[in-house]
Amino acid sequence: MNLLQFISSHFWETKNKRFISFAKYFSLFSIIIGVIALLLSLAVLEGYDKTLRETAIKFTSHIIIQPFNRQVIDDYNSLVTKTQSFSLSIQRIYPITQTEALIKHDDFTEGIGLRGVQPQYINDRVNSIIIAGNSEIFGKKALLIGYRLAKKINVKIGDFVHLFFLKSNNLTNVSYKTGKFQVVGIFQSQMAQYDDLVAYADFSIVQEFMGLDNHQATNIEIIIDDVTKADNIGNELEKYLGFPFYSLTVFDLHRSVFSWIELQKEPIPIILGLISIIAAFNIITTLLILILEKMRQIGILRSLGMSKTQIVGIFISAGVRLAVIGLLIGTTISLILSYLQMEFGIIRLNGDIYFLDVLPVRIELIHYLVVIVLTFILTFLATLIPSVIASKVKIINALRFK
After folding, report:
1. N or C terminus: fewer CB in 10 A for the chain?
2. In terms of Cα–Cα distance, which of 117, 111, 110 is closest to 94?
3. pLDDT tens-digit readout, 338-369
């Protein structure tokens, strides 16, 4: 075996050294690029899937109960009590007052979705994503906004903004209320649709501006012990509460996002499979060229008593060595690039199109193991074709070859 490895390591040295070296390094490069493309694509897909799902679940309540036709809940306390008794899986229930509003600061005006929430909601659901300010002073006339919205209207912590609430949809007689609020916190959910549109204010203040009394709310939001049960519990809860209430789950609210992720996953195996096949064909081509360059040497080795199996072993050893070097370099580069993106967010995205502002990646050990094993198997099989061809060369023909 040591003899075979020695011979295979020196088989790359030929008279036509430049051309053989080019073919060798081109094959090596194709393996490296194939491995990097496979691993980075899988890391990005996994990153998108996990980040979007975790963010959506973390930022959005698992189940939302609201009346039809944008009606209000007349007595949210009784609805909360009734809902709490429905299932032991229900952990938290939050009454919400939600409406559309305009936010104005200096010369900037934007439309937002204003959510009136109680301090418990802020503590449980928003505190973990506050990146500036202090949500502990959240109270009347205090406002929490997303960082994209803050950048858009040029707002900093402590600045005052004006909110405008539409009271009438009558186009001939539009009326509205206005209020002055202080920005006490800026949050970043990592989802552009929230950071750009959502703001939080005190529950009772939004009630007041919407013209609701103390017992009214627009919807209630529910957190359960296992989000995977959201669809089943939501459907059963809808039947339990009856008309006019209906349920929406986090999966309903973000169906387009999850469908988009699944759509991205479908063509990936085909595309990445083609990349691996191309790399394998490059190895086959390179070894076939090497066989032509080493035809006389093959004949000499056969005449000295080397068996066909040993000839096969020489070329398999040469191809496998090439594959191992390509795998080591490709996986190392992929690991470094993935780590740099995870730590520093080098590649930025348009959040309006791609949902996230930073390209998410996830390093998964299983991806590296699968890619290494499959690539090694594929390249090993690719070396068999030229190796078998080399072993079938007749000694007399090989010695006559020029």
Report:
1. C
2. 117
3. 999 999 889 988 877 777 888 899 999 998 99
The 10 Å Cβ neighbour count of residue 46 is 18
Give the Cα-Cα-Cα angle 164, 168, 177 (nearest 5 degrees).
30
CA angle 153, 155, 156 (to 5 degrees): 165
Which tokens belong to 294? 């080493």
Strands, DSSP E only, in 147-254? 160-166, 176-187, 198-202, 219-224, 245-249
The encoded tokens of residue 158 equal 């402590």
CB within 8 Å of 22: residues ≥ 6 apart: none
CA torsion 71-76-81-86 (nearest 10°) is 20
What are the tens digits of pLDDT across the range 229-269?
999 999 999 999 998 899 999 888 888 777 877 777 777 76
**Where is pLDDT greater, at 353 or 194?**
194
What b/e string do you get for 18-45 counting C-beta neighbours within 10 Å, with b at 16 or more? eebeebbeebbebbbbbbbbbbbbbbbb
Angle between helices 308-344 and 2-10 (to 10 degrees): 70
The angle formed by the CA atoms of residues 204, 183 and 127, to the nearest 5 degrees, is 75
Domain ranges, ordered by start, for the chain: 2-56+260-400, 61-253
